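This part of the workshop introduces the protein records we will be handling. To make this concrete, we reproduce a full record directly below:
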Amino acid sequence: MFEAELEAAIAAAREAGDEVVQLRRNGLRYGHKAGRELVSEADLHAAELLYERLAKRFPGVGWLSEEHRDTADRLRCDRVWVVDPIDGTREYLMGLPEYAISVALVVEGEPALGVVYNPATGELRAAGCWDAQERPPGEARDGFEVLVGRGEHGYDDLPPLPRDARSRGIGSVAYRMSLLAAGTGDAVLTGYGRAEWDVAAGAALCRAAGLRVTDAPGARLRFNQEDPYVRGLLVAEPGLHQRIRHYWDLVT
């Protein structure tokens, strides 16, 4: 199921990633959106390339992307591409290898597949999760590593965690989720709100790996919402997820 879409998403993510690497080598312009969020020529170029490769190949599938104007049309679609052309633009512009091309297909509000490609490191992770099952809770153990944003780590700006937790700062949240799905670290956490395009592909990878993926309050994520906003993020194997949530309930 969705094999053609997954194959197309992998190819499109690779092509977009290779393009943004070349654009940075050649020099590019960048600026700020409303507020202080960065955007570069590479974001816009990658957005158009992904749209050409995916939206036009699969007509009737909705489109939600950071760099395209959002419309209500997608709300009438059962299937929607949810795309971040470059998640981690700041790291990309700084030359830090912690950004990613993020592509997800959402079906009736649930992620069906995800592709996260970090062209700086060559890491590409892709999976379908339409039939994924959450793994059984693991046994409690001492000490675990939580992957968090660079700023959150640098300023110790995190929700409360048990004393045996240690944090590691990494730029792109999509990249962090792909690392966790592949077995690096024990949890991904942010108390800050995110857009659906930041986390949809990573959510697909993590669900395919049997992890529990929720917002910070603990609610299962649903995508293609009218307001595509996620209230923070907590991802971990079910036992650890429950332990972190229980700790928050005790101290807040």
About this structure: The helical segments are 3-26, 41-55, 89-94, 150-154, 173-181, 196-208, 238-251. The longest helix spans residues 3-26.
